[in-house]
Design goal:
Distance between the termini: 54 Å
Structural class: alpha+beta
Radius of gyration: 17 Å
Shape: globular
Strand order of the largest sheet: 1-2-3
Number of strands: 3
Helix content: 55-70%
Order of helices and strands: HEHHEEH
Number of helices: 4
Strand content: 15-25%
């Protein structure tokens, strides 16, 4: 059974690699977000942005949104969450063609779903 699991994981990793190989920039991190992790993600991206031919305005926007996203992950990650949980927070940035995609999120406890849903509905109802 362990061999089968290993093969499945290897196949999954290879498939992800093939998909992301088309991207000009791709970083994915899942786990606990610390100051060090955040700084490293920002440093890697900043270095790649500096080497790109993107207009300065685009570079600044991408970096600003990334900083804001990472700050939100750190600020809102559940401090009671098991630190060893492999899915406490998630950040993903990729560039395909002229499009940058930044995705981030935190898991929440089931008991907090209704509260979060109410807040999101209120925000979405604003004009």
């Amino acid at each position: 059974m362990p061999e089968q699991t290993s093969t499945v994981n290897l196949t999954f990793a290879y498939n992800i690699f093939k998909i992301l190989q088309k991207d000009e920039l791709s970083y994915y991190y899942k786990g606990l977000f610390t100051q060090t992790i955040t700084e490293n993600l920002l440093s890697l991206t900043q270095s790649n942005l500096e080497q790109s031919n993107e207009p300065t305005k685009i570079k600044k926007k991408v970096y600003f949104i990334m900083v804001e996203s990472l700050q939100n992950i750190v600020k809102h990650q559940d401090s009671k969450l098991d630190i060893s949980a492999p899915y406490s927070g998630m950040f993903f940035i990729q560039k395909r063609g002229s499009c940058y995609m930044i995705t981030s999120g935190n898991i929440i406890e089931v008991r907090n779903i209704n509260s979060l849903r109410a807040k999101l509905e209120k925000i979405n109802s604003l004009d």
